[in-house]
Amino acid sequence: MATLIAVYLGRTTVNRCDLKCYGAHTEVAACECICGGMNHGVGLARAEANTRASSNDWVARSRANGLEFDGVEVCMGAQAEPLF
């Protein structure tokens, strides 16, 4: 299961966006991950593009909403456009 973005408090994951979200077949309302539903059910390629474009906003929104964390990790596929 590829995690696109995760936020940590110490070594504990406090929120993330992964296959459970971008591979979902349920309603967006059921999504509680850091993407806020943007990646829900859209598939890996679209979710990587969304994460590339919006991850900084998601992190800022999470902090503004009071989520405590001290680390952020974004997968390589969501950090830069593919070369080929």
Name the structural class: alpha+beta
Number of discrete helical segments: 2
The ordered string of helix (H) and strand (E) elements is EEHHE
Strand order of the largest sheet: 2-1-3
Distance between the termini: 23 Å
Query: How much β-strand is present in the residues?
Result: 15-25%
Provide structural commentary:
The chain is built from 2 helices and 3 strands, in the order E-E-H-H-E. It is 30% helix and 18% strand. The radius of gyration is 12 Å and the shape is globular. By secondary structure, it is of the alpha+beta class. A hairpin with a 2-residue loop joins strand 1 and strand 2. Strands 2-1-3 form a 3-stranded antiparallel sheet.
